[in-house]
Specification:
YmcC-like fold; 2 helices; about 55% strand; mainly beta
Length: about 220
């Protein structure tokens, strides 16, 4: 092989390696929410302290959930039902939360506009939104939320290893929250919530990890 040929092969190898490295390190961009197949189930391992433990009845809990569809207030919604209540959410491509339902489908908590990520989700994106929070008593509370997508990383939890977006949010109600969101499965694989001293129910912490996952075929 002559000198020119060797230079050409070397240049081609360097370019290919550079392109592969870029593909391997460039975080993805997710355009919209996608839910798991209906009927899929999961379990979280939950660690609570302070006001969380008092409200939920324990410091170390296993919380089960399932995803389905239903009609609520005359429209089709996603329903994430579990042992700690039912969250109803807008269908794809939004997936934003509308309310948490209690007995008789009475909203225990609802958000206007719905609460959730701003799409597309990608590392570095930030947003701030103003919400009105309506409590079961009928009282309304203004709530501002500021979020930043901090990273895309592999998260190791008892259910396995999941590529996830790490999103940090600050709430004007006194809550600081970090969620690790799996776009492949449409759920959080890990969460960390800290209620400050000014939170209406008092300070407390909650850590959750995905303990098991059963995706319906």
């Amino acid at each position: 092989m002559n000198y020119s040929s060797r230079v050409g092969v070397l240049a081609g190898t360097v370019i290919a390696a550079t392109l592969l490295a870029a593909c391997a390190t460039t975080p993805p961009k997710v355009e919209a929410y996608k839910a798991m197949p209906m009927g899929s189930t999961w379990t979280y391992s939950q660690h609570n302290s302070g006001s969380y433990a008092a409200q939920l009845g324990g410091s170390e809990l296993k919380v089960q959930g399932t995803v389905g569809e239903r009609v609520w207030e005359g429209r089709k919604v996603l329903a994430f039902s579990g042992s700690q209540g039912t969250i109803v959410a807008e269908p794809e491509p939004s997936g934003r939360w509308l309310a948490i339902l209690g007995p008789g489908d009475k909203p225990f908590l609802r958000w206007d506009p719905p609460l959730g990520y701003e799409w597309p989700v990608e590392v570095g994106r930030t947003w701030t939104k103003n919400h009105r929070l309506t409590l079961v008593t009928g009282q309304t509370v203004p709530m501002d939320v500021s979020c930043k997508v901090q990273s895309h990383e592999d998260v190791v939890v008892p259910a396995g290893t999941f590529p996830a977006f790490k999103v940090a949010c600050s709430f004007s109600t006194g809550l600081e929250e970090i969620t690790w969101f799996s776009p492949e499965f449409g759920i959080f694989v890990k969460t960390s919530d800290i209620r400050g001293a000014n939170f209406r129910d008092g300070p407390g912490t909650q850590q959750q990890e995905l303990f098991s996952l059963n995706v319906k075929k």
